[in-house]
Amino acid sequence: MLIAGFPAGAWGTNCYLVAPAAGEECVIIDPGHQATEGVEDALEKHRLKPVAVILTHGHIDHVASVVPVCGAHDVPAWIHPADRYMMSDPEKAIGRSFGAQLMGELTVGEPSDVKELGDGAQLKLAGLDFSVAHAPGHTKGSVTFQLPESAEVPSVFFSGDLLFAGSIGRTDLPGGSQPDILESLARVCLPLDDSTVVLPGHNEHTTIGRERATNPYLRQVAAGQGADDAPRRGM
């Protein structure tokens, strides 16, 4: 399997291109702010042909380049229905005062082909099988994507901002919920095998086993403590 990732834009959003191997079809995950050049560079470097964009949630730092990327390659974008409005109205999604600072430099809107993700969906794209889990808390429509283990590679879990947000308590934007993110951590993350690779996580190059040992929210959830007992750190 080939996973090419890079941090995009001022927020350093984690964007990934995933393919069975170089020279094959690929899926693009979370092409955020200023990700277009990085996507095109990775496509050329690895000789990849994109077939879809899939989005872990709708915040502008994860979807800002969806329209140009989908338009350039005539591919659909997949997003949970609860977050779909964020592509066309990012100010509402992140708050008017913050959004007003960004709108002058961003082109917003939906690509021509948008498909909606459902909890438990199985996406067969580019020869890969992605399992979708609805994981609200960072946003109402946050999802994760998981690729199954094979003889060659362990399972890979694309967490979006679930673990990253869980580790810092980032639930202060519209649609964020501390109880929901803790429930999502317990339901979606804790049952994963220790060897499951997490992209991105609380630590770089991490596994869910390492997350269980180091992520303060996962430790609290695993111990059976509720939202009021979880550590809180702002950002």
As a percent range, the share of strand residues is 15-25%
Backbone CA Rg = 17 Å
Helix proportion: 25-40%
Coarse morphology: globular
Distance between the termini: 34 Å
Number of strands: 12
- Uncertain segments: 226-235
Question: Structural class, from secondary structure content?
Answer: alpha/beta
Describe this structure in words.
The protein has 235 residues and is of the alpha/beta class. The model is unreliable at 226-235 (pLDDT under 50). Helix content is 28%, strand content 23%.
Summary, kept brief:
This protein is α/β, with parallel strands linked by helices. It has nine helices and twelve strands. It has helices spanning 36-46, 60-63, 66-73, 90-94, 96-100, 162-168, 178-189, 208-214, 216-222; strands spanning 2-8, 13-19, 25-29, 49-54, 77-79, 114-116, 122-125, 128-134, 143-147, 156-158, 197-199, 206-207.
